[in-house]
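Sorry to interrupt, but I need a hand with the structure work. Leave the record below and I will have a look:
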Amino acid sequence: MPSGERINRRIVLKSRPVGAPTSKDFLLEETAIPAPTTGQVLLRTLYLSLDPYMRGRMSDAPSYAEPVAINAVMIGGTVSRVEASLHPDYQSGDLVLSFNGWQDYALSNGAGLNKLDPRMPQPSLALGALGMPGFTAYMGLLDIGQPKTGEAVVVAAASGAVGSVVGQIAKLKGCRVVGIAGGAEKCRSVVDELGFDACIDHHSVDFSQQLATACPKGIDVYFENVGGKVFDAVLPLLNPAARIAVCGLIAHYNDTALPAGPDRLSLLTRTLLIKRIKMQGFIIFDEYGHRYSEFFSQMSTWLNEGKIIFREDIDDGLENAPQAFIGLLKGKNFGKLVVRVAND
């Protein structure tokens, strides 16, 4: 937004999607920039994080968090600059990790804000490798997956913000790591740039056979981001005492009914029983919020040492957030999807 314009653009949820979201489900509004009162700060959004969980929050179905209300600003993590402050703990110019949602400006009473190093060369990393995706990868793999040296770890959505970090941490722990991604280019990057041992394109007609060939001794740890046919291919390859961290199920986020075909619940439960498999879902800040500082310290070290590589997919302009988000659900992003809302 040009600095001369004194408006606050905000993207609100206009309607609840039926199936895949469309641009008609969003509305770009213009309002006055709010003014802080005593105890508040005015934040200007620099970067907005777009993440698959937002699709669930667009629905009013029962879930782990309240849905976004119709005509309310879409939720989202942000990196922001303090524009004006009437709060004793913040000064104009402070860089903060915040939760402004899809808008240029927001007021905050300081709750939930985290100060960032103003010298950060790449502040958007606070939404990726050093933020929720990296934290999710770190705790989901290490606490639930508990990988051991020499084990086989399979990671769905391996080129994404979470999966790319999961696989690299698993390699640091001495594991054989096989990624699953959509498309030859993503698979090449996962192997050549991120250091996975192999990556299988789930678009391949013989995907299941390729995955089995890449995992000749079975799978000990599976990090689930996708569901659908990807999980169907993984299930028969799981070893006794395998661990499954269930982070996301993006293949099903737009479902309006149960998938067609036979009921495979009995196959799943029987496999879990006879192979004594642990399968656990988690919501990162609910279960692990108290361990964020531990994660931040370790991940910062790995990044500084070049042991973790993190790719960002940056779109420019708040007005482009809806289309970028729609593309995210179709797997069009390559790395962590971030919208650059304003130049700092």
